[in-house]
From TrEMBL:
<dbReference type="GO" id="GO:0015276">
    <property type="term" value="F:ligand-gated monoatomic ion channel activity"/>
</dbReference>
<feature type="transmembrane region" description="Helical">
    <location>
        <begin position="220"/>
        <end position="238"/>
    </location>
</feature>
<protein>
    <submittedName>
        <fullName>Ionotropic glutamate receptor L-glutamate and glycine-binding domain-containing protein</fullName>
    </submittedName>
</protein>
<feature type="transmembrane region" description="Helical">
    <location>
        <begin position="451"/>
        <end position="478"/>
    </location>
</feature>
<feature type="transmembrane region" description="Helical">
    <location>
        <begin position="187"/>
        <end position="208"/>
    </location>
</feature>
<dbReference type="InterPro" id="IPR001320">
    <property type="entry name" value="Iontro_rcpt_C"/>
</dbReference>
<dbReference type="InterPro" id="IPR052192">
    <property type="entry name" value="Insect_Ionotropic_Sensory_Rcpt"/>
</dbReference>
<dbReference type="Pfam" id="PF00060">
    <property type="entry name" value="Lig_chan"/>
</dbReference>
<keyword id="KW-0675">Receptor</keyword>
<keyword id="KW-0406">Ion transport</keyword>
<dbReference type="Pfam" id="PF10613">
    <property type="entry name" value="Lig_chan-Glu_bd"/>
</dbReference>
<comment type="similarity">
    <text>Belongs to the glutamate-gated ion channel (TC 1.A.10.1) family.</text>
</comment>
<keyword id="KW-0325">Glycoprotein</keyword>
<feature type="domain" description="Ionotropic glutamate receptor L-glutamate and glycine-binding">
    <location>
        <begin position="71"/>
        <end position="132"/>
    </location>
</feature>
<keyword id="KW-1133">Transmembrane helix</keyword>
<keyword id="KW-1071">Ligand-gated ion channel</keyword>
<dbReference type="InterPro" id="IPR019594">
    <property type="entry name" value="Glu/Gly-bd"/>
</dbReference>
Length: 482
């Protein structure tokens, strides 16, 4: 068991040891001899004989309890209550195959909760036990990797796993300063409206100028044209109108466009009052890396998943290289011992982002009201069940896994675990806020943007009147001294 400090995190000397071990593997850059045969998973051709598989006895090493693949270790695999107490995907695969082949298992719990990695040509963890000792299979979801497939037989992948990112919910969801003015439209839309008014005014000025000598069209200055189209946008009437159809058509369609824009503005503003939206500090993996680089967040991971740390370290993608630099060189990473410890740490510490299996984060994001699961997937990989090299059972298990996938049993077994967790934690989330009618009323905090616009209009009007007075007095003085 890893040593835990007062903050509930793994002591940093252990963290540095783990990171240095991975960095050493990177620096050595182990190359595999091409003579090794790699059996990732078998083909669809049946090369086994059922008669040779029936009645076998397999020694199974269990590195760790890892829901929803290993929910618990059953005392008797043939007597499991799969409805009320689902054992997990891998246990169900072992159980169903045992029923078909009359197999028996001997489960041995590993001393270390680690699948194992290849370090200086030697395997450690559960893979080391499987390769060097008298074991037949690892009970768990092992990431499908080339180096593992050289020394063991990996079954057909039973699940495509992705990692997700969870953070604590921000305390302040929205800044209402300019909500009533700017939020219904984005800034590009406001800019587009301003440009449309200017372009329409210029076109209108050109049209009236061309029609001056043809039909004695009413003339407007460029300022008057701008004010006309701005007034139409605000649904104000205009005192002067053009005579010709071309100019009237331009004004009519701008009026229709303005009505549509204002209707959209009103609907969007109503939605903003009714929905308490959340402003995310970042939305994807690149944003997370940038937030970690800027010191706003610290990465949090489970120390029992070194293969994912290894994936980050060995990736050639620029974003993963940046993340590994922040982890290894700038020490912007902390580890917890177990998934639930990570959830609790994120709940109590706002500046951490917990990276963990997304199927588990998805379950607990529905239980923990003060956490947010970002809609982004990272560190995706296939999960497989490792067997001893040249095992006669690998192909049969692979065929069974294919059938389970085709018939939806894998997804069902994961859903069974999710339903069990929800049934056991119906009252865990105690921060749910029911929305009442008073929540959607227009308070001063949401309306102050309109007040600022009104005060700005008064200030601009006073400023303009002073400028006009100064200009008028200047003309009088000039005429007086002529």
């Amino acid at each position: 068991m890893s040593q835990i400090n007062d903050a509930g995190l793994i002591n940093y000397d252990i963290v540095l040891k783990k990171l240095n071990q991975i960095q050493t593997t990177l620096d050595s850059d182990d190359k595999f001899v091409q003579s090794h045969s790699s059996k990732i998973y078998s083909s669809s051709e049946k090369i086994y004989k059922i008669s040779e598989l029936i009645g076998g006895h397999l020694k199974v090493i269990v590195p760790k309890i890892e829901p929803p693949y290993i929910n618990y270790l059953p005392l008797d695999i043939n007597h499991i209550n799969v409805i009320d107490n689902p054992p997990g995907v891998v246990i169900m695969i072992l159980k169903t195959v045992a029923e078909k082949l009359n197999l028996t298992y001997e489960f041995i719990i590993a001393e270390q909760e680690d699948m194992g990695t290849l370090v200086n040509g030697t395997w450690n963890g559960a893979f080391g036990k499987l390769i060097y000792n008298n074991y037949d299979v690892i009970a768990g979801g092992a990431t499908l990797r080339y180096d593992r497939s050289i020394y063991t037989d990996m079954t057909f992948p039973f699940y495509y796993q992705s990692y997700g990112m969870m953070i604590r919910s921000p305390k302040q969801n929205r800044n209402y300063t300019w909500l009533i003015v700017t939020d219904p439209f984005s800034w590009p839309v406001w800019l587009g409206i301003a440009v449309s008014i200017i372009i329409s005014a210029l076109i209108f000025k050109v049209l009236t100028r061309l029609l001056k000598n043809i039909s004695n069209e009413e003339q407007f200055s460029i300022v008057e044209s701008l004010l006309m189209f701005f007034s139409i946008f605000l649904q104000q009437s205009i005192t002067r109108q053009p005579i010709n159809c071309s100019c009237r058509i331009l004004i009519a369609f701008w009026w229709l466009s303005s009505m549509t824009l204002l209707a959209t503005f009103t609907g969007s503003l109503t939605a903003l009052f009714a929905v308490d939206s959340i402003i995310y500090p970042f939305k994807d993996f690149d944003g997370m890396v940038q937030s970690i680089k800027n010191g706003k967040y610290t990465l949090l991971m489970d120390i029992n998943y070194p293969s994912k740390i290894d994936m980050i370290a060995k990736s050639n993608l620029p974003s993963y290289k940046k993340l590994w630099y922040e982890m290894y060189d700038n020490h912007k990473v902390n580890f917890v011992d177990g998934f639930l410890s990570g959830i609790e740490h994120v709940k109590n510490n706002p500046n951490y982002v917990f990276v963990a299996p997304k199927e588990m984060l998805d379950i607990y994001s529905g239980l923990e009201c003060n956490t947010i699961l970002l809609n982004s997937e990272i560190l995706s990989s296939y999960l497989s069940i490792p067997f001893k090299k040249d095992s006669k059972y690998t192909d049969y298990f692979s065929d069974q896994i294919r059938q389970y996938l085709e018939h939806g049993f894998i997804d069902k077994w994961i859903s069974d675990y999710k339903a069990q967790i929800y049934s056991e934690n119906t009252k865990r989330c105690n921060e749910t806020k029911q929305q009442t009618s008073s929540d959607v009323t227009l308070g001063i905090d949401k309306a102050k943007g309109a007040l600022y616009v009104y005060l700005s209009g008064i200030s601009i009007s006073i400023l303009v009147i002073f400028i006009e007075l100064i200009f008028y007095l200047s003309i009088l003085l000039i005429n007086k001294f002529k």
